[in-house]
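step=encode ok
step=design start
structure_in=
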């Protein structure tokens, strides 16, 4: 560690009490080093630090600032990071010097050892070239995988997957008959959810995978990703329609499904090992929340368990709403359409009576 000469003292200790913009931030507190503040500059990285922030003794600071007074020169100060780096570089240089010395000793020992060393060096160079080639290949493969993943996500952005949609019956239906059936079923689901979409809004329908015991998932592509997002938001209303067995989710890539599965495992691991007593008292737990394809791992309050529904025999009749089984059955789509038609007819009749002139008595 060396101290600066007095000619450099003015650059080390600046004097100004007027706060300025953080042009020379302190390495410790990040605040601006004013001209009149007690501060020193690192001889290697040329960054400033407050003496108080660095915890530098006043005697050492005075020695740096007044080297000529004490008959010294060439004393510099280096920050901790630069000292660590310098020590590592010095150590590495020492290692390299030792290796060079060993090489020189071997060279002086005889030509045979020199030739053997040349062969070893050649092998090392070849192995480095091979390693560079492998690294380049892996990088190219990774870039290709990322490009394909982004391409797949962009392609599936306007797609939705419908589970539990019945497939066409009969023996050996044609491909056109299957497509027409799937399109018809999809439109029926959209109508039940009151999406306001028709056949022109659907880009394609396609069954996924081999046919198992149940119906295969139905992939539906829309021309607009906004229509797909609106369908996903309304999918929870399927329980109120005749399509209770149908579920709808986003069309995710294999990478997205794997990430969500890993996220669920990580949440379970954290809940088992990382929850504190305070978290348990507050009923907090780790969970993967968000829509499919957009899930994130957060610590949130656990949902309380739902109480069992009241049985019909336990209902006393004093509640405002009776149980579901005692309510009047929901109107079907045909009944609802008839009801709307009657309303329109009554409205037209009343409008005609208002607009017609009064009859003469």
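sequence_out=
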């Amino acid at each position: 560690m060396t101290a600066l000469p007095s000619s450099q003292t003015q650059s080390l200790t600046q004097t100004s009490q007027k706060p300025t913009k953080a042009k020379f931030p302190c390495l410790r507190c990040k605040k601006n080093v004013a001209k009149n503040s007690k501060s020193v500059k690192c001889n290697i990285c040329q960054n400033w630090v407050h003496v108080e922030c660095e915890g530098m003794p006043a005697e050492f600071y005075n020695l740096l600032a007044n080297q000529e007074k004490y008959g010294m020169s060439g004393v510099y100060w280096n920050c901790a990071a630069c000292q660590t780096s310098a020590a590592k570089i010095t150590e590495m240089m020492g290692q390299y010097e030792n290796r060079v010395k060993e090489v020189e000793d071997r060279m002086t020992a005889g030509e045979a050892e020199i030739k053997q060393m040349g062969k070893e060096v050649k092998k090392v160079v070849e192995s480095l070239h091979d390693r560079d080639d492998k690294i380049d290949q892996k990088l190219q493969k990774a870039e290709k995988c990322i490009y394909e993943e982004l391409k797949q996500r962009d392609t599936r952005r306007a797609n939705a997957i419908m589970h539990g949609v019945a497939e066409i019956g009969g023996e050996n239906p044609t491909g056109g008959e299957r497509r027409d059936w799937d399109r018809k079923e999809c439109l029926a689901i959209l109508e039940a959810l009151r999406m306001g979409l028709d056949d022109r809004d659907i880009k394609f329908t396609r069954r996924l995978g081999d046919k198992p015991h149940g119906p295969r998932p139905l992939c539906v592509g829309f021309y607009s990703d906004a229509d797909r997002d609106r369908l996903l938001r309304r999918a929870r209303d399927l329980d109120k329609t005749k399509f209770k067995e149908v579920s709808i989710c986003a069309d995710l890539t294999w990478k997205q499904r794997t990430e969500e599965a890993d996220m669920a495992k990580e949440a379970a691991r954290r809940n088992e090992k990382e929850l504190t007593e305070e978290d348990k008292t507050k009923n907090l737990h780790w969970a993967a929340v968000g829509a499919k394809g957009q899930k994130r791992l957060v610590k949130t309050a656990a949902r309380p368990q739902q109480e069992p529904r009241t049985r019909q025999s336990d209902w006393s009749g004093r509640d405002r709403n009776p149980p579901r089984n005692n309510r009047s059955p929901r109107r079907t789509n045909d009944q609802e359409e008839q009801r709307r038609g009657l309303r329109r007819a009554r409205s037209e009749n009343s409008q005609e009576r208002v607009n017609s002139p009064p009859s003469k008595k």
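step=design ok
step=annotate ok -> Confidence is low (pLDDT under 50) at residues 1-10, 308-328.
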